[in-house]
Amino acid sequence: MVAETKTTAEAEKTRRAVRKRAKTGDTHLAGYIFISPWLIGFLLLTLWPIAQSFYLSFTDYSLLEDPVWVGTENYVNIFTNDSTFTKSLSVTFLFVLFSVPLKLFFSLLVAMALNQKLKGMNLYRTAIYFPSLIGGSIAVAALWRNMFGLDGYINQVLAWFGIQGVGWISNPDTSLGTLILLNTWQFGSTMVIFLAGLKQIPQELYESAAVDGAAKIRRFISITLPMLSPVMFFNLILGVIGSFQTFTSAFIITKGGPVNSTYVYALYLYEKAFKHYQMGYASALAWILLAIVALLTIVNFAASRYWVFYESEGGGTK
C-alpha cells in the first residue's frame, strides 16, 4: 500500500514537471514569436548592411557597375593620397574639441539652475528642452543660416546699435563657430541627464558640508562634481560620438565652405558616396570613422579611472 502510494506521488510529480516544462516551452515560443519582427529587422536592416559595407570597403564600387575587389587600395589611398580626408578630419576634430566641452558646460550650468525649488520650474525645463526636440532638423539649420547670413537677423540687430555686421557664415574665420554654437544650443537632452543626476545626490551631504562651514563653491567642487562624474562621463561619451557624426548643419548652412572651413568628415563621406558615387571608397571612410570613434571611446574609458567617482567604491574608480 505504501509502495503504491509512493509510486502514485512520483507519477503525479512527473506529470507536474512535464506540464511545467511544456508551459515554459510555450512561454519561450511566444517570446521568440514576439521578438522575431525586431530580430528580422535587425538582421536585414542593420547587421546585413554593416557586413555589406565592410565588404564594399575593399572594392571599387560606383552603384552603376558591379563591385571589383581591390583589397586595401581604398584605405591606402585615403591615408596617402587624399588631402581632403586630412582636412575634413582636422575640421571635425576641431568641431568636437570645442562643441563637446561647451555643451557639457552650459548643460550643467542650466541643469543646476533648474534644480532649484521655484514656482514654474517645470515650464522653464520644458522651454529649455524644446530645442532638442527639433535639434538636428533641416528647419533649424535653415533658420540658423538666416540668422547668421550677411543680411541675417544677427547683423540686423547689430545694425540697430551702429555696429557693422560680418559674414558669419561666409567668413572662414567664423563659419565653423556658427556650427559649434548651433550644436551647443541643442543641449536639452544633456541637460535633462545632468538634472536627473543632480537629483540623485543625497542632500545630507550638502547639509553636513554646510554645518562644517563649507562655502557653496567648495560644496560644488567636493560634492557635486565627484558625485556627478559618472553622468559627466556618460554625456561626454555620447557627445563625442554624436559630434563626430554631425552632418545636417554643415550640409544645409555652409555646404562645407567657405574654403572647406566647415567640411566635416560626415559631409565628405556623403559626397563621396552620393555625389561622386564612390561607394567602396565611402565605405572605407565610414569604417575609418568607426575606428577613430572606437579608439577615442577606449581612451576615455581608460582615463575615466582617474576622475570618475562611483559611490559604491567609496572613491575614484579602481
TrEMBL record:
Main location group: membrane
SUPFAM superfamilies referenced in this protein's UniProt entry, alphabetically: MalF N-terminal region-like, MetI-like
UniProt entry tagged with the keyword Iron: no
Bilayer-spanning residue ranges: 29-51, 91-114, 126-144, 176-198, 219-241, 247-270, 282-303
Keyword Translocase annotated: no
Membrane association type: Multi-pass membrane protein
Keyword set, alphabetical order: Cell membrane, Membrane, Sugar transport, Transmembrane, Transmembrane helix, Transport
Subcellular location(s) per record: Cell membrane
Pfam families: BPD_transp_1 (PF00528)
CDD domains: TM_PBP2
Domain ABC transmembrane type-1: 89-300
UniProt record similarity statement: Belongs to the binding-protein-dependent transport system permease family.
Protein name: Multiple sugar transport system permease protein
